[in-house]
Amino acid sequence: MDVEAEDLRLLTEIGFIALGAGLNGQAGLVFEGVAAVRPEAEAGFIGRALVRLALGDAAGAVEILRKAPPSDAVTTYLGMAYARWGAKDEARACLASVANSVAPPTTSRSPVRCSRRSTPRSEAAIRPGPRLPGGAHRRRAA
Questions:
Q1: CA proximity to 7, closest of 23, 28, 30
Q2: Chain mean position to CA 51
Q3: What Gene3D superfamilies does this protein's entry cite (predicted)?
Q4: How far apart are CA 66 and CA 51, in angstroms?
Q5: C-beta separation of 34 from 11 below 8 A
Q6: Which helix (H) or strand (E) holds 18?
Q7: Within a 13 Å sphere around the CA of 55, how many CA atoms are in the beta-carbon half?
Q8: Are 17 and 37 a contacting pair, CB within 8 Å?
Q9: Radius of gyration of the chain from its Cα atoms, rounded to whole angstroms
Q10: Percent of the chain with pLDDT strictly greater than 70
């Protein structure tokens, strides 16, 4: 299927709008479509991972993002997914790696690498977050 870049961008935006509105199922379908049309595009990986996070499945988000081509955006979301999964060391390594990659040239950069291993070092500390009915765990008090 031939999809123009602008159409793909709009489809991706629709997916993020659906996700922001709590329409996780619809957002998931949109991002599956993005991934089917452009399997190498980071938007499909990131969108599907964010849907998994919205559903309380941080492990699923980590699994999706580990398969994505490396980029600062993917590594940032991987760090966030690791943090939600409870893998603090991996989260710090990912986020530090992104921070170091965008640091000004005068800042020293330490050789920090984000892990894409199948099992985090801190697996014993990993506990799923609380799930509340109706997505209440995602809402903030007004």
A1: 30
A2: 9
A3: Tetratricopeptide repeat domain (1.25.40.10)
A4: 15
A5: yes
A6: helix 5-20
A7: 16
A8: no
A9: 16
A10: 70
Q: What is the pLDDT of residue 36?
A: 95
Q: Is 135 left (phi over 0), alpha (psi -120 to 50) or beta?
A: left
Q: What is the DSSP letter of 23?
A: -
Contacts of 63 (CB under 8 A, 6+ apart): none
Q: What is the dihedral of CA 76, 131, 23, 17, to 10 degrees?
A: -30
> When comparing pLDDT for 23 and 123, which is higher?
23
Q: What's the pLDDT score for residue 134?
A: 53
The span from the CA of 3 to the CA of 116, in Å, is 31
* Beta-carbon contacts of residue 52 (< 8 Å; ≥ 6 apart): 58, 60, 61, 64, 81
Q: How far apart are CA 14 and CA 4, in angstroms?
A: 15
Place of tokens 């031939």: 2
Q: Which residue has the tokens 């988000």?
A: 61
Name the token pair of 7: 């159409």
